[in-house]
Write the structure tokens for this entry.
Amino acid sequence: MLPAPDRATTPRAEHIESHVSDAELVQRIVGGDQWAKEALYRRHVRSVWSTALRLLGSRADAEDVVQDTFAEALRDAHRLKKLEALRPWLLRIAVHQAHRRFRRTRLLRRFGLVEGADDATLAALAESVASPETCAELERVDRVLKTLPAGERFAWILRHVDGLSLEEVAYSCDCSLATAKRRIARATRSVEAHLASGGLP
Amino acid sequence: MSARANERSSPVQRALDAPDTAPLGRLLDDGFSEEQVPRLWRGVEQRALRGSFARRHGAALLAAAVLLLVLGAGALRFFDAGAPLMLSSGDAPAVLDATRGRVESRFADGSRIELGAGSRMEVLRNDGRSFVSVLQRGEGWFEVEPGGPRRWVVHAGIANVEVIGTRFHVARAPGRVEVSVTRGAVMVLAESLPGGAARLSAGDTIVVSAPNATEASGSPQPKAASGTSPAGVPPAPALAASARLPMDSAARAAATNAVRAEPASDAIDELFREADRARSRSDTAAAVAAYEAVLARAQARDPRRGLAAMSLARLTLRGDPARAASALDESMPGMPSALAEDALARQIEAEGRSGRLDEAARLARLYLSRFPGGRREADVRRWLPP
């Protein structure tokens, strides 16, 4: 009689055991290994999803960006020069795809072709886990972020929500360090001003 | 943390002051669920296919992997992607690792997988329509509960197994895959097999070897496990290699006597072998006649009707598309679910090429409703009116 399945042998998706490094997965993908493609996707989908969701504030848009990101990454894996830098490279693709999606959605909203509010604002994502006061404060932050240009919004979220370093923000946004700092500083001034005024316009 | 930060006690304020140590992300629940994983992956694949199609202008791809079809239930099923199949423990299966010893996993629908010591399997896709895994090393015994909505696919490197409701064993070693069936039937399709395919019934075993692992003849033959090869029965001849889609290979049913346990062969299987021999000598007319004989003899819900129809349609699509459309239409009720999507797409094209544009458009709308985001969507949409 065999033992019943052990929970240790059935880890959840985000804890996929792996004896294969990112670098090796990329090499296998370049060599045409189909399994390696999906293995890489499963390893990184959660973090790409998380970033896309926070940048865009919409689950539907985030799902599109996740799929576009991995489709592009798997197609262009041969272009990745530093194989061990896969994660930042993926993030950079995701930010680029999110940028495209953000601009498109904004334009469609302006013409009334997209309805409905975003369903994944910072306040909405904190609702089940944070206090009401924190959620209210996050709502004020959301209101400010909505008014910012895409570059400032994205740089601020990557820095203050995802906790990326300034260098990482610059790489992800495909801009210089000075530009990243400038965008973050501008966005932070807007957020702080809004918070200081009690959230009143 | 700075003194200023200490004064500002709210999490938002702390994130503004010290994003490196207290980013806002810590406060958030992204709501990522397990069911998103396979669903989003399907979308990635669709995007990749669309991009590939646009670049190659519709040229067929030669797939390295092989698709095995089950001739099990045979009923045509269309399912939307839905909830994943969970283990009976309530967990979502991701990796089954038997590195430290045999592992048995039971699923909520009654299916069971047992991995031999040292084996490892990873789940690639798990939704309401399919359960796709890769046997990375070692061996597994699979008992798939019949009547379920999902098709099970086990990738094993140079050979893949696709089943619905059967019991089978797959053992993978470098350059070699062995498949044996305990219950039900399995169609094994591999580039290295004569005719590209072999049909296994309960009690049959087949060994598929990588092309570069075969003898100097350069024409790899399936090797039967000892005790299962009937004496004096030559294997079917190898067909000329040609670029074809995996589903094209899947549609070419062939049984090789070398792997059947019993010397007596089914008349329909013999017709498939006849068709393969005809195709090996480029006698399309004889091959078409053999497939039509299968359509005439096989029972309405015999999955082999679907296989014959797909093969016949491929041979006649350009020269006689009405014939292709008719064959597919007749055999749709018994079409193996693994072929259903491609069969419908092919029927749409056949109807369109034969001038029945209204019918092509009707079937195209049917395809889009039954296979949202399907892999043949780009081809099918061509037949919708502008």
Notes: Confidence is low (pLDDT under 50) at residues 1-6, 57-81, 213-265 of chain B. The longest strand of chain B covers residues 130-143. Chain B has eleven helices and 13 strands.
